[in-house]
């Protein structure tokens, strides 16, 4: 006999248990499945490795994965974030940091004798190579230009440690 909490609603969506819903909400907030699991369930008698494994398994549960996707979609819509906007911002940061585009700084000039205040805008070109490099790196990753290299000779396993010991009779 099925649990009442598991029955589908009028929209055809399967409801989650309160703990599952809390896990989903915390996962979106924290970005860490293990920590979301610890805060949603009693893990006092569980090893850290077990918590990590169970939390990872929860994300593969189709109901939980669907709810996480729904929460992520709501989050993107609420903050009005799109891939195009992020790409445009990264391109602007790249242009500013490489000195291609100026940044306007405002300088306030006070004239104590006449009692007036003027604001003067000054376009400034900056060269910030570290920030430009990071923007270019993120743009390249988005385009799939940088792939992690896989060592096929060892089958993705670490090479064995070899220690050579030689003995000599010489003093």
Q: What structural category do the secondary elements indicate? A: mainly alpha
In this structure, how is the largest beta sheet organized? 2 strands, antiparallel
Order of helices and strands: HHHHHEEH
Count the strands? 2
What keywords describe this structure?
extended, disordered N terminus, 6 helices, two-stranded antiparallel sheet, mainly alpha
Descriptive report:
This protein is mainly alpha-helical and 171 residues long. It is 47% helix and 11% strand. It is built from six helices and two strands. It has helices at residues 18-30, 33-40, 48-60, 62-79, 83-97, 129-142, and strands at residues 103-111, 116-124. Strands 1-2 form a two-stranded antiparallel sheet. A hairpin with a 4-residue loop joins strand 1 (103-111) and strand 2 (116-124). Helix 1 packs across helix 4, helix 2 (33-40) packs across helix 3 (48-60) and helix 5 runs antiparallel to helix 6. The longest helix is centred in the middle third of the chain and has 18 residues, at 62-79. The radius of gyration is 28 Å and the shape is extended. The relative contact order is 0.07. Mean pLDDT is 82; it is low at 1-12.
């Amino acid at each position: 006999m099925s649990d009442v909490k598991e029955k589908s609603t009028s929209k055809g969506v399967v409801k989650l248990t309160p703990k599952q819903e809390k896990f989903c909400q915390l996962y979106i907030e924290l970005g860490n499945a293990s920590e979301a699991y610890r805060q949603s369930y009693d893990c006092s008698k569980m090893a850290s490795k077990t918590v990590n494994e169970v939390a990872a398994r929860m994300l593969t549960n189709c109901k939980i994965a669907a709810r996480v996707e729904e929460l992520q979609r709501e989050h993107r819509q609420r903050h009005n974030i799109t891939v195009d906007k992020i790409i445009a911002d990264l391109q602007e940061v790249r242009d500013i940091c490489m000195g291609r585009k100026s940044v306007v700084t405002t300088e306030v000039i006070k004239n104590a004798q006449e009692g007036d205040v003027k604001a003067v805008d000054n376009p400034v070109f900056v060269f910030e190579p570290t920030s430009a490099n990071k923007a270019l790196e993120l743009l390249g990753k988005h385009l799939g230009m940088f792939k992690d290299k896989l060592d096929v000779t060892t089958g993705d396993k670490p090479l064995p440690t070899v220690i050579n010991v030689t003995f000599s009779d010489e003093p």
